[in-house]
Amino acid sequence: MVRIQPFKAIFYNTSKAGAIENLIAPPYDVLDSTKANKLAQKSPFNVIHITFSLSADSNFYSSAKEKFFQWLKEGVLKKTSEEGIYFYEVNFEYILGGRKRKVARRGFFASLGLSNYSKGEVLPHERTLSEPKKDRLALLRSVRANLSPIFCLYSDPSLEIINALAEAEKKEPIFEFCDDEGFEHKFFSIYDQNLLQKISDYFAQKRVYIADGHHRYETALEYWRELLAKGDKWAKQAGWIMSYFTPIEEAGLVIFPYHRLLRNLSSVQLDGLVERVSEYFYTHLIFDHLDKETIWEVMRKIEELNDREMIMIDNERRVWLISLKENYQQEFFNFLDVEILEELILTRILMISREEILGEKVVSYETSEERIAEKIFSQEYQLAFLLKPISAQKVIERAEQAKAMPEKSTYFYPKLPSGLVFRLILDE
Question: Which DSSP state fits 356?
């Protein structure tokens, strides 16, 4: 039984904080210090000041708490008087398979009751790492608020819930704005008690699947257990996490693949690569030399890929379609393309260690076809492997099988912004 409930939101008071488009930021885990500092320069109230350590300062966690509650005290942030859920739609353009498209993705913010994965209510699909969880736990302990939502999927073939929310009476806070990328954002509050009850009842019969925010979810679980063990009076409040919910049937649910670009490889790793790959894969030469015109023909071929196929661009800038041979199909029957790439090519053929894969000194990850088109011609990268996107249905299948995907398997685009709404756990 999935537990979903409304909550009293904290949100920016734009009359004091300024325009909302200058206050939001992407989630911390897709930013580097350069991007974060640019966001910080937009406004002293940009959410980045409380979600990202701009100077690797050990006092960041206490500083984030101080800023957050100071903003509340000064009225930069304010709290709704009623418990509600919060509709959010983003209209955006993107490039996939070399083609530009425009769609809208709709969803809503609510509180999700925490539960162990073993209960089968909330299911993950990706592995997590210990260091990001230590960081987020320290921030959660200090600020005692959900500063960024997690992103969850659920199934609703008729889109009944999201359509009802889209047509609901709009209450404050209401934000409508266009960001620097030209994306159009619509956000409004819903306090209709009958509708809120309908949603709670609907999800009581459902499972939800974490799309993004696995580290934040597992951090929230650990924090909740800590408070329960201490008999803390706020443990009940900590047993919920601010979440965003989108149906898998929503037309604007876009998932990019994480393509792999490789660098710092030795001649031993590169010599005879195509012949070694040919032991496991059929290799078909698409272009004998890649240039800035044919790169977009290559991108268009991504959508044509079948399962257990991928595109390899070698160190001579030749482009290959590689397809797993029949005698390996059974061994890798339950493997995703990204897992075949990691197991067969990165680990067996190129002899790249697990530590090197995770450390990103050898393997670099990229989701943007435009950035790949730039990077592939630089002297920095020696190889590239392009993958087709993983479907939302496959994400759910793997979650239900309790078989976590490798890190950097799915990139839900666009990322949910931090700063639209916050949820306080402990009152000061």
Answer: H
